[in-house]
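stage 2 :: seqdesign
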C-alpha cells in the first residue's frame, strides 16, 4: 500500500495535543522493519505532517506494538512528555491490553489462564519453550459456532505472538 493511500485510509479514533489513537488494520506493521512495508509510525507521521503543515520531522512516540497479523486500536504519543507518562503507565501495569480473537475449534475450559514460556524464533514465529520469556494471559470463551470460538483475552504480558499460542489450550 502506498503512503498516500494509507494516510487516506487512516482511522483516527481520538486525537489531542498529546496523543493520537488509531485503528491498525491487520497485516500492517506497527513500526518499520527490513521488509520496508508500510507501517503505522510512517502513516501517522505523514498524516500529522500534512494535517498541521509541519516542516521537518514529526515526533511520534510508539507506546506499544501489535503483531503484524493483528488488527486493533493503538495509542501513539505526540510529545516526548506524553510518551514518558504512557510508558510509565505500562511499566506499572495500568495499561490494559484486551483482545477479541476468533479461534478455530472449541475449548474444554471456557475460562482460564495461559502461562508458559515463549521463545521467539529466527523466522519471527513463536514456540513454547522453557528457554523463552514468561507469558501470561486470561481468556474467556464468549461464543462457539461452526467449529469457531470467540474468545475475550486479557494480556498480562506482551510477548511476540502470545495470543496465537492460546490455541494450544483449545481442543481441535
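stage 2 :: out
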Amino acid at each position: 500500500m502506498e503512503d498516500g493511500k494509507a494516510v487516506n485510509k487512516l482511522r483516527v479514533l481520538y486525537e489531542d495535543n498529546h496523543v493520537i489513537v488509531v485503528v491498525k488494520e491487520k497485516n500492517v506493521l506497527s513500526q518499520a522493519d527490513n521488509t520496508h512495508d508500510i507501517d503505522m509510525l510512517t502513516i501517522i507521521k505523514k498524516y500529522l505532517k500534512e494535517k498541521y503543515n509541519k516542516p521537518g520531522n514529526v515526533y511520534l512516540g510508539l507506546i506499544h506494538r501489535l503483531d503484524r497479523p493483528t488488527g486493533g486500536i493503538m495509542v501513539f504519543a505526540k510529545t516526548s512528555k506524553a510518551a514518558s507518562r504512557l510508558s510509565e503507565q505500562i511499566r506499572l501495569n495500568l495499561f490494559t491490553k484486551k483482545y477479541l480473537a476468533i479461534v478455530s475449534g472449541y475449548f474444554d475450559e471456557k475460562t482460564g489462564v495461559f502461562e508458559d514460556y515463549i521463545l521467539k524464533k529466527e523466522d519471527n514465529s513463536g514456540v513454547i519453550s522453557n528457554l523463552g520469556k514468561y507469558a501470561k494471559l486470561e481468556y474467556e470463551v464468549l461464543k462457539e459456532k461452526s467449529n469457531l470460538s470467540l474468545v475475550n483475552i486479557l494480556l498480562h504480558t506482551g510477548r511476540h505472538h502470545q495470543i496465537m499460542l492460546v490455541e494450544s489450550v483449545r481442543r481441535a
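stage 3 :: structure notes
- The chain has a mean pLDDT of 88.
- The first helix runs from residue 3 to 9.
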